[in-house]
Design goal:
Elements lengths: L2 H24 L25 H20 L23 E3 L3 E3 L10 E3 L4 E8 L5 E4 L1 H5 L1 E8 L2 E3 L6 E4 L3 E9 L3 E6 L9 E6 L1
């Protein structure tokens, strides 16, 4: 809940409290039979003249219900956040596929860098052509994300953390992760210095 939403709720509570106070003051005033008590219309309600005890109880109940309605979670305000459903941030509506990364002798890792959004789930395929043993290292980036799973030949691995990956032969792995910590990161082939041998990553 944002600061502005809190302020809006407090103002509505204040307005209802003031209206309820007008109602309770009206109980002390003389009324002619059959006429609504003064101040009831400020709550948008009409209560016919009742015996003093019953009228007081009904008015108190109306005021309490109105205040509980305002204070109910999410009452009276639009939900600006995304609706992920039961799966939360892991739902399909929050998932995006990233361009694949290719490991091969003399091949660029990717055509362009990544721009990720914190709180969004991503999947990326990393493929090695087997031309030589190659890997990817990026400890700062791997610490800035939460790795959901690594899939290799149908085998799902759920690690607590990751520092690097390496291919001894041709193959493909798929990594599913949740971007978390905003910043600028990279993944690169260990020991390389060329710009095409690294992927620049920004989490916003």
């Amino acid at each position: 809940m944002t600061f502005d939403q809190n302020v809006s709720i407090m103002r509505r509570v204040r307005d209802i409290a003031e209206s309820f106070e007008m109602v309770t003051r009206s109980l002390r005033r003389p009324r002619s039979g059959g006429r609504p008590a003064a101040g009831i219309q400020s709550l948008g309600m009409t209560v016919e003249a009742l015996p003093e005890g019953r009228r007081a109880m009904q008015l108190a109940s109306l005021g309490l219900c109105a205040m509980l309605t305002v204070l109910a979670p999410g009452a009276g305000m639009a939900d600006d956040g995304p609706d992920f459903g039961f799966a939360g941030v892991l739902s399909g509506s929050n998932s995006r596929d990233l361009p694949p990364i290719t490991l091969g002798a003399g091949l660029p890792l990717a055509e362009e860098g990544w721009v990720l959004k914190s709180g969004r789930y991503y999947e990326v395929e990393i493929t090695s052509d087997g031309s030589q043993e190659l890997g990817l290292v990026g400890p700062e980036f791997f610490r800035a994300i939460w790795i959901d799973e690594i899939v290799i030949d149908g085998l799902e691995i759920r690690p607590l953390g990751l520092d690097s990956v390496e291919f001894d032969e041709a193959g493909t792995m798929e990594i599913g992760f949740l971007a978390i910590k905003p910043g600028r990161y990279y993944m690169k082939i260990p020991g390389s210095t060329g710009a095409t041998q690294r992927v620049e990553i920004t989490i916003e």
